Amino acid sequence: MASPNHQAVVTVAKRAPLEIKQLPTLKPTGKEVLVQTLWTASTPLDLHQADGGLLVKHPQVLGDGTAGQVVVTGPEVTMLKEKDLVFGFTFRNEKEKAQQEYVCAPENLFGKVPPGWEDRLSECVTIPNNFVTAWNALLNILGLALPWPKPSTFAPSSSPRILIWGASSSVGQYALQILAYYGYHNVIATASPRNFDLAKECGAAHVSSYNSPAADLKKDIEARLEGKVEVVLDCIGSRNGSVAPIAQIAEAGTKVAIMLPVVVKDAGEDVEPEYTMDVAEVVQWQDEVETIGVRTHFYLEDPFLSSHLQPDIMPTLLARGVVKPNKQKIVEGATLLERAQKALDMLRRKEVSGERLVWRVG
């Protein structure tokens, strides 16, 4: 039985320490389910909201990756039942945000944890938000074919030359895994040298260092791909760290999808971050390069993805071993607030690469 009120982690002002707020535990209606949150994974968006006030009205509950157990179902729920273990990307409003003890959200924002993963929720929670981001960007923004269910004879009708920038990021890992599953083999990635093996394990045919001078990187990429890059997924969204060098690689006809917001100035211990949503103007692009900002929160406007991406596709690909969770760094602490604050501070200090900050909620 859920308690009438529960704890939630909230921002109270830009760059202020996080606080705990008591929220009412809602009874689900319609197709909603009430989930006891057991694990969550902190994301750069948490930092953008806490330090930069991005799209925030304080007090703002943080988090959008939920793993837990269904405790109550709404009267119209058909896919889930009480005691089911679930994982999902829940993000639209206060009652759906993940850094609270109970989340109330529609059942289509969850997947049921596959058999064999019941004791691995801390791994499962690394998947939903960035798996959804990668799938939606590849399909609906970059226009790559990802038919579901995948026909046994499927092969891409064309093999575009693809660059995944930031392959060791969570989005980068899932993008490479998805592309490999669908037979896109003409894929090159950038990463730091220590993460080359990780990128190759996820499906990259070649990996180059993003620290190389842009002119050298362009030459290396085009030699390996045997032609100019046609499709780019920027999984980082940093003006200087990714967008500027990509602008020196992309030529007329290249399509570039960039994670939003674009970070103009990184958050630091004593530095307030700066952002822009204008991918076309943040750097100088060559003529006829198509640039598009990735806004994952709109993926629900695709009726098929709304119905199938999290409830069906995500758990099926996890069960088959196509999608593999990101590596995790478990954040410890005596209280919910301590764990949340420690994870946020670690994000600000850029303490992790190639892994996710995961922590227990309930």
Describe the structure.
The chain has 362 residues and is an alpha/beta fold. It is built from 9 helices and 18 strands. The strands form 4 sheets. Strands 3, 5, 6, 7, 8, 17 and 18 form a 7-stranded mixed β-sheet that branches. Helix 5 links the parallel strand 10 and strand 11. Helix 3 crosses helix 8 and helix 6 crosses helix 7.
Highlighted features:
single chain; 362 residues; six-stranded parallel beta sheet; 9 helices; 25% strand
The helicity comes to: 25-40%
Q: Strand tally, please?
A: 18
Mean pLDDT: 96
Query: What is the string of SSEs from the N terminus onward?
Result: EEEHEEEEEHHEHEHEHEHEEEEHEHE
Largest pleated sheet: 7 strands, mixed
**Strand residue percentage:** 25-35%
Cα-based radius of gyration, to the nearest Å: 20 Å
Classification by helices and strands = alpha/beta
Work out the helix count: 9
Helices and strands in order, then pairings?
Elements: E1 5-11, E2 19-24, E3 32-41, H1 44-52, E4 60-61, E5 65-73, E6 85-89, E7 102-106, E8 110-112, H2 121-124, H3 128-141, E9 162-165, H4 170-181, E10 187-191, H5 196-202, E11 206-209, H6 214-225, E12 231-234, H7 239-249, E13 255-259, E14 262-265, E15 274-276, E16 290-294, H8 303-320, E17 327-330, H9 336-348, E18 355-360
Parallel strand pairs: 9-10, 9-12, 10-11, 12-13, 13-16, 17-18
Antiparallel strand pairs: 1-2, 1-4, 3-5, 3-7, 3-18, 5-6, 6-8, 14-15
Helix pairs in contact: 3-4, 3-8, 6-7
Give a brief outline of the structure.
The chain has 362 residues and is α/β, with parallel strands linked by helices.
